[in-house]
Amino acid sequence: MLKWALIFLVISLITGFLGFSGISAATAGIAKILFYLALAIFLLFLILALLAGSAVV
Predict the structure, then answer these.
(1) pLDDT tens digits for 2-55?
(2) Are 33 and 1 in contact (CB under 8 A)?
(3) Residue 25: which residues within 8 A CB-CB, separation 6 or more?
(4) CA–CA dist 39, 57 (Å, integer)
(5) Where exactly are the transmembrane stretches of this chain (predicted)?
(6) Residue 57: pLDDT band by 50, 70, 90 thresholds?
(7) Cα distance between residue 44 and residue 14, in whole Å
(8) On the CB side of 8, how many CA atoms lie within 13 Å of its CA?
(9) What is the pTM assigned to this prediction?
(10) Residue 2: what pLDDT?
């Protein structure tokens, strides 16, 4: 998912450089959403791993 966030970020930077501000803003928004979604999933798995680790011990 972070890979897709980086792809959309690169597309946003390229389109912003070329002057397509509407497309740039849209892809930047998508990149933000994907980044925060990946961060939330990472934190969820981190918490689950810590809880599972303490249950085994």
Answers:
(1) 899 899 999 999 999 999 989 999 999 999 999 999 999 999 999 999 998 777
(2) no
(3) 12
(4) 27
(5) 35-56
(6) low
(7) 33
(8) 17
(9) 0.77
(10) 85
- Provide φ and ψ at 36, rounded to 5°: -70, -30
What is the distance between the alpha carbons of residues 57 and 8, in angstroms, rounded to a whole number? 42
For position 27, what pLDDT does the model report?
92
CA–CA separation, 35 and 51 (whole Å): 24
Return all residues near 28 (Cβ < 8 A) that are at least 6 apart.
8, 9, 12, 16
- Structure token digits, residue 43: 């934190």
